[in-house]
């Protein structure tokens, strides 16, 4: 140890350092399914791994919705609480209508968020779910979840966040706005939407 006192960093400096770390990360180049299948054919164990990973995509291009050119189609957000029906947002229609649908959440409950989506045409790499929560326009929480890489499939695929605790106490009660973003390592924005919830002392029913 040098004996010199550690200089405290400002939040701005920490944020700058975090951005530099992020910017130094270079995601691997995207490869088509054909390129992945063609590589390392002599490696039997790797070939079997690819077959398990790619699943239906080996038989040809998986296209679930031909009129939609996107590789990722986000279908639904669900707020999941044990022993209660899921609260769901349909993400396939007019996203501006979501602001009219306000979830009521009992203070202090543990919940998870599930995203249902379709992957078609090509593998998507490094999917991420980013959620920023605001109260009266002031940011109060941000979470980023690594969803992972997914092959095309005809079925709905899902990602569920780890459990979170809703705020509790009289000061926590009230309305919140959430900005959600489904993106990936290459900064493709697959869907961005805004929704709302209200923390109450008890469930509305």
From TrEMBL:
Source species, domain of life: Eukaryota
Q: Where is the composition biased (Basic and acidic residues)?
A: 1-11
Q: Pfam families annotated for this entry? A: Rho_GDI
Query: What SUPFAM superfamilies would the database entry show?
Result: E set domains (SSF81296)
Instruction: Outline the segment boundaries, as ranges, of region: Disordered.
Output: 1-32
Among the GO molecular function terms of this UniProt record, one is:
Rho GDP-dissociation inhibitor activity
Coiled coil location: none
- List the GO terms this entry assigns under cellular component, sorted alphabetically: cytosol; membrane
> Keyword Cytoplasm on this protein?
yes
Enumerate the InterPro entries for this protein: Ig_E-set (IPR014756), Rho_GDI (IPR000406), RhoGDI_dom_sf (IPR024792)
Q: Which UniProt keywords apply?
A: Cytoplasm
Set out the biological process GO terms recorded for this chain's protein.
Answer: Rho protein signal transduction
Compartmental location: Cytoplasm
Query: Tell me, what does this protein do in biology?
Result: Inhibits GDP/GTP exchange reaction of RhoB. Interacts specifically with the GDP- and GTP-bound forms of post-translationally processed Rhob and Rhog proteins, both of which show a growth-regulated expression in mammalian cells. Stimulates the release of the GDP-bound but not the GTP-bound RhoB protein. Also inhibits the GDP/GTP exchange of RhoB but shows less ability to inhibit the dissociation of prebound GTP.
Write the protein's name.
Rho GDP-dissociation inhibitor 3
Q: What organism does this protein naturally occur in?
A: Euphydryas editha
């Amino acid at each position: 140890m040098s004996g010199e006192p550690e200089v405290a960093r400002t939040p701005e400096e920490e944020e700058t350092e975090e951005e530099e770390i992020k910017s130094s990360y270079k995601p691997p180049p995207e490869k088509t399914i054909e390129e992945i299948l063609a590589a390392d054919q002599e490696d039997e164990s790797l070939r079997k791994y690819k077959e398990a990973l790619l699943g239906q995509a080996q038989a040809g291009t998986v296209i679930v919705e031909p009129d939609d050119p996107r590789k990722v189609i986000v279908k639904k957000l669900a707020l999941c609480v044990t022993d209660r029906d899921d609260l769901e947002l349909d993400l396939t229609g007019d996203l501006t209508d979501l602001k009219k649908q306000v979830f009521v959440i009992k203070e202090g409950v543990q919940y998870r968020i599930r995203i249902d989506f379709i992957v078609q045409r090509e593998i998507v790499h490094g999917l991420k779910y980013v959620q920023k929560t605001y109260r009266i326009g002031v940011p109060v929480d941000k979470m980023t979840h690594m969803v992972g890489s997914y092959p095309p499939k005809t079925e709905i695929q899902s990602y569920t966040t780890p459990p979170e605790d809703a705020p509790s106490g009289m000061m926590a009660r009230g309305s919140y706005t959430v900005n959600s973003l489904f993106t990936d390592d290459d900064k493709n924005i697959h869907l961005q939407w805004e929704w709302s919830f209200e923390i109450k002392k008890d469930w509305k029913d």
